[in-house]
Design the sequence.
């Protein structure tokens, strides 16, 4: 079933149509995902690569996305309703397809990789403008310029080029030239319109253009390799990130902010941000660890760890797995230092208290053997006990602060009463001098007793 491209257009004869989005939920538990089987057809109707709307869904829903170009499978992790995705698709069309001047979908995107700008030109009204670069999808588009094959697939453009070439052949035959040679030149685009078409639609597809871009623009190369990398397995993508980090981290080098950001961007490109801390731990504490300097090494790369683990408990759990695997690789050296390692990660705010306490509740053989996991947990008992005690003491201190004022006041009032009553019972001079009221009461009682006897 076809629907109008514009959300607010109810005209049944509106010329710009697209298939209604179909969503199929597959898998169970943590592996559940939503497949959009007709995303390629939808993207073709919009004149955009199918990766763009799929990635847009991921940005809006906070979910990871996967692209299987060979089988035309475009996946968004999690369970998502077709109606919700259709509504997001209309939002994507409003932002990245419709012309801001005439609201016509016949727009073409051009990426300026050096400046990081995306330009949109409308073929209907001729309006030319830059897209709003604040949305996360623009970063993905800059790294992955539009695929030229999709643009060249339009039937209207193909027919127009064929008419031009036929007309050119007729003109050449009338001039008495050799038809075959002239027609060959015409097909190559001798006329101005043909040159413009080739420059706009065909340059980026050629192998020579790709090679030239690889030499001149490193960002362009990364963008072209993106789709190929995303087709690889997660293990292969982790290896790609490993090689990238090692290039940024020669032995003894300290990372600057630009390098840290570049590593984070590469992890986002490969969609393995959550599992990256495990890899970082193995690199920093195993492959690049100086002798007896594990604590200093953690502090040295604190900022890089925080870029991945800050307010992300799932990433912190993977970091715990990385710590276990690192200890396994350097057991003799690092096993005795388990409490110090965990405390350093805690003190530097890389690992949160909740994650550490949850990890300490049970022994897991997910990353290492159960025997080694038990040894690590046994070594960590002192730190975990300290962590629990510190938490309980902080709670008790806060409660005692509230009760302290009440207790002191109660004790003070009690002491005063005892001091006042003691002299009265002993009948000492000091007692009489300090409290006159009890004396007067005793005298009255004695006088009353005498009067009774007289009667």
Sequence:
């Amino acid at each position: 079933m076809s629907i109008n491209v514009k959300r607010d257009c109810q005209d049944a004869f509106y010329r710009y149509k697209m298939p209604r989005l179909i969503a199929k939920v597959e898998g169970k538990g943590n592996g559940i995902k939503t497949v959009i089987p007709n995303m390629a057809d939808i993207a073709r109707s919009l004149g955009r690569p199918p990766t763009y709307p799929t990635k847009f869904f991921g940005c809006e829903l906070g979910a990871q996305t996967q692209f299987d170009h060979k089988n035309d499978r475009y996946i968004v992790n999690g369970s998502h309703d077709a109606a919700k995705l259709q509504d997001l698709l209309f939002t994507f069309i409003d932002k990245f397809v419709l012309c801001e001047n005439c609201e016509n979908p016949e727009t073409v995107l051009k990426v300026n990789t050096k400046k990081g700008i995306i330009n949109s030109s409308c073929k209907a009204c001729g309006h030319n403008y830059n897209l709003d670069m604040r949305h996360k999808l623009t970063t993905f588009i800059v790294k992955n310029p539009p695929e030229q094959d999709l643009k060249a697939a339009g039937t209207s453009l193909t027919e127009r080029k064929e008419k031009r070439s036929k007309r050119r052949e007729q003109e050449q035959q009338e001039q008495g030239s050799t038809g075959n040679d002239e027609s060959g030149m015409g097909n190559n685009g001798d006329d101005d319109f043909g040159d413009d078409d080739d420059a706009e639609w065909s340059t980026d597809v050629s192998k020579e253009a790709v090679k030239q871009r690889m030499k001149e623009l490193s960002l362009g190369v990364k963008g072209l390799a993106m789709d190929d990398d995303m087709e690889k397995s997660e293990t292969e993508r982790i290896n790609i990130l490993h090689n990238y980090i090692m290039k940024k981290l020669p032995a003894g080098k300290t990372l600057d902010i630009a390098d840290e950001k570049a590593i984070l961007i590469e992890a986002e490109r490969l969609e393995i941000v959550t599992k990256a801390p495990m890899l970082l731990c193995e690199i920093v504490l195993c492959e690049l660890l100086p002798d007896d300097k594990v604590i200093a090494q953690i502090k040295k790369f604190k900022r890089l760890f925080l870029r991945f683990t800050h307010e992300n408990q799932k990433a912190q759990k993977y970091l715990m797995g990385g710590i276990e695997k690192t200890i396994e690789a350097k057991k003799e050296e690092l096993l005795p230092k388990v409490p110090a390692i965990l405390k350093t990660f805690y003190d530097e705010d890389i690992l949160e208290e909740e994650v550490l306490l949850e990890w300490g509740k049970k022994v897991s053989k997910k990353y290492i053997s159960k025997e080694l996991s038990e040894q690590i947990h046994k070594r960590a008992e002192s730190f975990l006990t300290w962590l629990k005690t510190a938490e309980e003491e902080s709670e008790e201190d806060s409660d005692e602060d509230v009760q302290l004022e009440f207790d002191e006041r109660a004790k003070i009032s009690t002491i005063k009463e005892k001091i006042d009553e003691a002299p009265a019972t002993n009948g000492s001079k000091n007692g009489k001098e300090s409290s006159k009221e009890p004396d007067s009461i005793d005298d009255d009682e004695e006088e009353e007793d005498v009067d009774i006897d007289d009667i």
Q: What stands out?
A: The beta strands are 2-4, 17-19, 24-26, 33-36, 65-68, 73-77, 107-112, 117-122, 128-130. Residues 388-454 form one domain. The chain has four domains: 2-103, 155-218, 232-379, 388-454.
